[in-house]
Amino acid sequence: MPKSKRLTELATPFASVVVELEQETSFVKELRGNALAQFNSYGLPAKKEEDWKYTSLWGFSQQQFSHQAIPHTVSQAQTEQLALLKQAYRVVIVDGVFSNELSQIDNLPTGLTVSSLAEGLASVQSHLGGQINIEKAGFNALNTMLMNDGVVITVAKGINIEQPIELLVINSGATENLATHLRNVIVLEENSQVTVIEHYVGLSDIQYLTNVVTEVVLAKSAELTHYKLQQESENAFHIATLAASQAAHSQWKTNSISLGAKLARNDVHTQLLGEQAHVVMDGLYLLNNKQHSDFHTRIDHAVPNTTSEELFKGVIDDKGHGVFNGKVIVHKDAQKTDSNQQNHNLLLSRNCEIDSKPELEIYADDVKCAHGSTVGQMNEDHLFFLRTRGLDEVSARNLLTYAFAVEVLERIPAGDIRKALSAVVEQRLPQGGQ
Amino acid sequence: MPETEQAQELQQIDDVLDSDYKAGFVTDIEADTFLPGLSEQTVRDISRIKGEPEFLLEWRLKAYRHWLTLETPKWAHVHYPEIDYQSISYYSSPKQNKDGPKSLDEVDPELLRTYEKLGVPLDERARLAGVAVDAVFDSVSVANTFQDKLAEDGILFMPFSKAVHQHPELIKKYLGSVVPYRDNFYAALNSAVFSDGSFVYIPKGTRCPMELSTYFRINAANTGQFERTLIIADDDAYVSYLEGCTAPMRDENQLHAAVVELVAHDRAEIKYSTVQNWYPGDKNGVGGIFNFVTKRAACRGESSKVSWTQVETGSAITWKYPSIILQGDNSVGEFYSIAVTNNMQQADTGTKMIHLGKNTSSTIIAKGISAGRSQNSYRGLVRIGANAENARNHTECDSLLMGDQCGAHTFPYIEVKNPTAQIEHEASTSKISEDQLFYCKQRGLDVEDAVSMIVNGFCKQVMRQLPMEFAVEAQNLLGLSLEGSVG
Q1: How far is A404 from chain B (nearest CA, A)?
Q2: Chain A closest CA to B351's CA: distance in Å?
Q3: ipTM score
Q4: pTM of the model
């Protein structure tokens, strides 16, 4: 496919940036080299590509990003305040750099390692780049070329980590148009369990790019509970790939809550490679002003007897534009697959837009697959009922909007995390938390 | 290759081919056929032979020149070898009396026997069945029935080429107004070289007293068929149109790129039903028709209604998205579809509902059945424009899988720019459950009958939309198409 000219031109400044980790191995150098070659030949995705049909990178292509961060002044007290959880192992990345001082990972239990990309790479090198595709995937190639930091988390065989790990990624606002390319790797060995929260926060309203790839590897019977809370600044570009591979009997529960950024693009992908592997893939996007959120999900049922559940909900206000593209692929011979995918959208304003595309590709016969997608507005009868009960218009609308969104939150097990995420979502409702 | 050798080879291949395909016969009549090839001259020749007015030739040429700039679309979930458009003959007409047949007696008897085998009620049976047939045999319409009866009501139902001469003002006004020649690759090709088709005009306030039907047949080997159908229902008019297709057996892929345009004015209603059972190729995917069709309806007037019903069991490759543009306020669009694929068939079919007017509503019920090593995709678009207040859409697409080598896919696109819209889409995929089969067998049914019964139940929602004459044929077809796929 001929690539768009302007996007090729854009590729040039990125291609001239050179990044190297401390004691970078030849393996990583080779990955970067391949990625550079891919990036040079395909550039960034153009709108005529099916996967970018509804998301234009025109605004993005007009920016000149910087790869040189000016020192920031984020303090310990600030991170305390920003963090979603008080009781958690906390890893802090500010302006694309892992911060030892701000992180709280001193007393880790046996079997759990949490380190910066450069430090932890050696232990997970064989998994690096294994979950993502860099061919014709401009941002993945870009990330591989330029990954400068990130977090490596490993959990040893049979270990169950009770306390969650919060990965707090902060943009301090010190550097205009800063581009960061983070790579996180999470590896769970057999029978291990852990909860990880990726939390992205912007402290100012400046423009910047967060380009992050998180790779997840689940060995046999491993269980990862994963949350992603995206609260980037209102002018940020947030481009993320979250990709997992799951062995037999493993369970991955992931929930992405997308609230911030001018343009957010999330690719969530898992491959169910072992029998009885199970995935729960949820998400919630709340959009207002001119926000654009694009979720592309893909679940590959590669072997028999795997199951998946997916629920994405969107509340779109003002001139917001939501995109959902969910793909479920049942490969040949993946019999007894059970898959259910739902996407529901609530439109609150005249000028908003939603494009939903739930896809099923099925190459096996003994399967149970269903998907559903709805788009609608607030039910006038429900509203009327609440008004007759004495609620004013604003409260009634707020309550109904929350009720719509809360279904996603209710799938999170009761506890601190659900409470904290619910509070954040409530704050972000169109009429504000009341 | 000498002619005799070629004929021999074709004969051999025919012998090898499956005998299940009941409509597989070639009528041996002399045909007036163009040499293969496509150029501006071909387009001019077609137009000249048909004695078309200048405006139509111009339009064809514009379409041809535009077609040259286009590339074959690749996005559909189907695979097939590149088509060589220069190896196709673009015109074929049965030899006939210069003056044209005035009654059935003058029609080539060989031709009539062909229709008989297909069960076309062209003679007395037609009257009994209450069906008027504008039978298209290859490219030239040879007979029209019930013309007079329809004419009494002012209804025009005639071959497209005749309409060009008798009602050029209508053709000029409506041709390409729903499917412009720039629309897509196959529509452009059709616009350039279309041979014939049907033209229907229902005047204001008229309810067409009978179901109109046309049989399209691809007869002469190697002749692409490029039909063009135009149906206009003026204010408060109603028409139900049936289209059924069979094609004789040949081992070379034959291209069919038809265009159907429907226009519904204020409060008019058009019901368009199709049963398509063209030759699907043999068990190994050899032969079969390539069916690349552009069908689109415009609900121009307020409270107008268009309903597409299709039963697709044939063709090696189907690429077809009957669409409705809901322009008028309160207009209604419906799409009911059954697509069956077996052996090596590939189908990529669905619909588009474009909501532009206020209070428009659409319903999509699509049932896909895949068996053998076939691939069956539903691809649909529901678009709600910014001004389409209170638009409503309900979509259901269900797939039934038979056999572990086949595929069933769903690619729905939902695009909404108006917050008052209510859109629901649901899809499910499953196989015939062991429990259902067991129950039927326990009641004394054999497996084939049990499957047939379950499949018919699965398709019932769509079947009951079909006119009576078609429903029976369609049910038989379903059973036939799936023969041998279970057990």
Answers
A1: 15
A2: 14
A3: 0.82
A4: 0.84
